[in-house]
Structures are given as C-alpha cells and as structure tokens.
Amino acid sequence: MTLRSGRRNTAAAALFMAVVSFALVVSFETSAQRQRGRDTTPPVTISKVVFEALNDRVAAVGSGRSRRQVTVSTRVAGVIDKVLFEGGQNVTAGQPLIQLSAEPEAIAVETAEAQRAQAADAVERYKQLRSGTITEVSRAEAATALKVADAALRRAREDLDRMTIKAPFAGVIGLTNLEVGDYIAVGTAIASLDDRSTIIVEFTVPEASAPSIVKGLPVRANLIARSGEVYHGEVQATGTRIDPVSRTFQVRAALPNPEGRLIPGSTFSISVMLPGRKAPRVPGMAVQWDRKGAYVWRLKDDKSVERVDAAIVARNGDTALLQADLNEGDTIVQEGGDSLRQGQKVRLQSS
C-alpha cells in the first residue's frame, strides 16, 4: 500500500508542475503579445520658440533741480523803496520784484527828454528854411545834436529801468530778508528763482550700461520722501566720457512737473529701461532641471529629443526668457519632458 501511494503522489506532483509550466508559458506569450500591440513611446506636447526683446533695467539715485534756476541780484546800488513779492509766489517774466529809490534817475530822464525835444525842433526848423538861409554845416550839426540827444535819453531811461529789479523768467520766487529802507550794493542777492515746469535729475550709471544710454530713453522716477509716487520722463542729455575714478557715466533726465508737486533738491530713485538684445521665449513648463542646471528638450526631425542647456534670464507670467542655443521657430517639448532621455523618440499629442 505504501509503495502504491508514493507512486500516485509522484505522478500527481509531476502533473501539477506540468500544468504550472504551461500556464506560465501562456501568460508570458500573452503579455508579450500585448506589449507588441501597444505603443510605449512617451507622449509629449510641443511649442515653438519665439524671440522677444530683452529689456535690461538700470537703477540709480539722483537729486533733482529746476529746469532753470538763478539767484536774482541787483546791478546797481540804492535804497529799497518797495518790495513787490512774497516768498513762494509764482512770478512772470519781467515782473517787478524790488523798486529802488530812483528820484535822480527820473529827473535825468526828464532832462534828456527835454534836450531831445529841443534838438528835434532845431532840425525841423532847419528843414523849413530855404537853402540859402542856412548852411549845410548847420543842418549837419543839428542832425548830430539830435542823435546825441536820442542816445542820452536811451541811457537815462536804462538807468531808471535798472532801479527796478525784475524777474528774468517765470518761476517760483524764494524768500528774502530785505525790507523797505535797506541799502543794497551792486551784486546783492535778492532771492532765488526757480522754473519748476520741468525737474532735472542728474545721476550716474555703470560703465557697462553707458553705450545703451541715449537721449529720449524713458525714465521712471520714484520720489524717495513720498513712496508710491511715480513720475515718468526721459533722458535729456548724457555726458561725453567715463569717469576714470568711479567708472560711471553721467546722465541727465527731465521730469515734467506741470502741477509743481516736485520740489528742486528732492531725491529720486531712478530706473531706466535699456533696449537690449532678443532672447528666446518658451513656456515655463518646458524648462527642466537637474544637477547640471536648467535645460529644455528640442525636437529633431526624426521625432527624437536633444538636450539644450539654458539659463533663465527673466520670467513673465507663465513664460520664461532664456539664454540658450535656440533658434527662432525651434520645436521644444512643452509637457512630458520630465522623464525623457537624450535621443529618445517621442509621440506628439494635443495640449
């Protein structure tokens, strides 16, 4: 009995092993057939490379001054008769500011006017007389006397006009300590006068940015004392050479100030947009990273991919500007590039 039982167990075990082996073979063949029937090429979406102007920004700090500024002074000495302005007042060109006592000058004008009238009468009388009555020499002397009288009258009027100190241009007049009765000498300062219609801001930029700074470039200015206030202007003028010590370049910007809110002497944070080179722009999802840095996958004609190393220069929303060896119109992998290998073929699908 024991011998027969052992034979039956051995036969059963052999039969079981045969069945298992057949099942494994069938399963393997079925799996291979399924793999052959299914495309394992990784699917990706693509995008075209476009080039965009890369604008660099230069920041600086500068101090503002008026478009025109002067300290009003007197060309003559005298005693103040009237002070015709107040500090902070807007004045027009030619508006009287200080009136000096001018009685002697007024008398000189009256005298010159009388002498000129007398000389003019003499010339007129000589014209009415017949040629034989008066000589040509007398006529010439009368004409000369009239010219001298005219010159003396102009000089007297000029001396009288100088006794009134006037604004040389329109602007805001500053404070003064002068009072009626004060004696002022030649060259005495009266007050400052500023034309605030435009504020000039002078600043410096690094030597590397100097070639890109040209007249007319847009300028953005932030008033440091009042954060949040932004003013726009343009480059008005530039220097002619690099400072050999600081290695900087002098720039002058003009900020329109029609409402007069900007005050000369204020400090500004200046930003100048420099027109730069063009850079390839790609979707942000196309940029991949590994230990070597950033890169993108470029699609070749045979649907295989190649790695192109890149450096991100700037981001703009969901796109990135790169420094990379890419050409306008190159096809790159937008989505699906996180598991690709160099030279691997891909399958295109809709985004």
Short summary of the structure?
The chain has helices at residues 2-37, 103-128, 136-162, and strands spanning 43-48, 50-53, 56-73, 78-83, 90-91, 96-100, 164-166, 171-173, 183-184, 189-206, 218-223, 230-242, 248-256, 267-274, 278-283, 288-290, 293-299, 305-316, 319-324, 331-335, 347-348. It is of the alpha+beta class and 351 residues long.
Strand order of the largest sheet: 2-15-19-18-17-16
Number of helices: 3
- Specify Rg, calculated over alpha carbons: 46 Å
- Shape descriptor reads elongated
Q: Which parts are unreliable, with pLDDT below 50 for 5 consecutive residues or more? A: 28-33
The averaged pLDDT comes out at 86
Number of strands: 21
Bin the strand percentage.
35-45%
User: What is the number of independent domains?
Assistant: 4
